[in-house]
Amino acid sequence: MRHLRRLACILIVGTATCSAFGQGSDAALKDRVAQLVERLADPKVEAADAAEKSLVELGERALPLLPEESKLKNAGAKKRLKAVRAAIAEKMEQTNLGPTLVTIQGKGIRLTEALRQLQSQSGNRITDLREGTGAEVTNPSLDLDIQKLPFFQALDLIARQADVTPNYYTGDGSIGLMAGPGMDADLPDQIGVKAPPTVKNPVIYSGPFRIEIKSLALSRDFATGAANGNTQFEVAWEPRLRPMLMSLKSEDITIIDDHDGEVPPSVTDESGSVVLRPENPTAELNLNMTAPDRMNGVKTLKSIKVKAGITLPAGLKTFKFAKLTKPGDIQKGDITVSLISAEAEEDVWKVRVDLVYPGEGPAFESYRQGLFNNRIWLQKADGSRFELNGGFSNYGSGGGKLGFEYLFVDVPGKMADYGFVYETPSKVLTIPLEFEFQDVPLP
Prior knowledge:
By secondary structure, the chain is α+β, with helices and mostly antiparallel strands. The protein is built from 6 helices and 22 strands. The chain has a 6-stranded mixed β-sheet with strand order 6-7-8-9-13-11, with no helix packed on it. Strands 12-10-14-22-18-19 form a 6-stranded antiparallel β-sheet.
């Protein structure tokens, strides 16, 4: 089910989507932001202060829905709205690199409501794929007692109770939901629900990551006598992070069998780094090894301990062009984004953008890698947006400058109706991904 791009919901704030919980949450957020902006002009200082604080707390999700300051008549409201933008931008600079903690408590909570809260509290998009794949779309009542659990643990618990399965190959950067069964992983007891004995796939949570063993295979070449093994992991991340690169070195891997013998791993330069793309918030990690000595009675891998590095963007900056049809430059700090042109060829809009980043060498190459995970969308004056859906190409680079052409397909309305918004990191960081699986049975 890895090619579900056309079945996934394209998030357009204020318009209908194929996800019931997405539609409700989008409309509610838009109304909430509009109400709070109106209260910024309240003559009661306490009320205006409360509205300003609430907008800042909504954070990045509220940013594209905020009106331009020039459209507000009240001088005090204009000043407060400017302060809100600055405060949200500052929060975005301080990227949360840990797990998002979620609290959802109550009896008889509908699945749509549980997912709405999960999205709202985490900033991670979830797409219901069941209708698009011909499955029955149920909305069961759930009894939940989720208190400050990491996002993935909360998601797995909800999926288990609702008999749905998360799918990380949506093609639009969200986490999809497929029809059950929702108990396809050996979930740790700390999430509050005991896994049934028939469950097979081991799962570990590490910060904002979810790691699952998908397969373990052993092989023997009778011509050479070589015996090898391979363990395939599925590493999923919170979509809000949009990581760029995963790297792995042999010296950061320790494998011990149930006879306390060391099993040598094998990581080549080619397989040691995996480029991560934003379309699917997951990646396969293949770990090759010398096959454990089954002839001496080895039945399990006592420990598989891995330490990888995840490179991801931080300090996100948003460049907003009021008119898609009006070329121009916007500079923030050391970064300049130039809207070069926008042309229509039948149902495809081609938008050309130049970016200037600081420096050359490894630092610039890190930024260059990050550009492929940038978020780009078209936005109307009312805050509704149309996400990039036709891909892109790199048409030139050099001297700290990169040129990209982005394609938007079947955009409703005219070019003059839209502005252009570009989100890019101001820096990149590498954080550790550490996990250990124990007592993994051999085939």
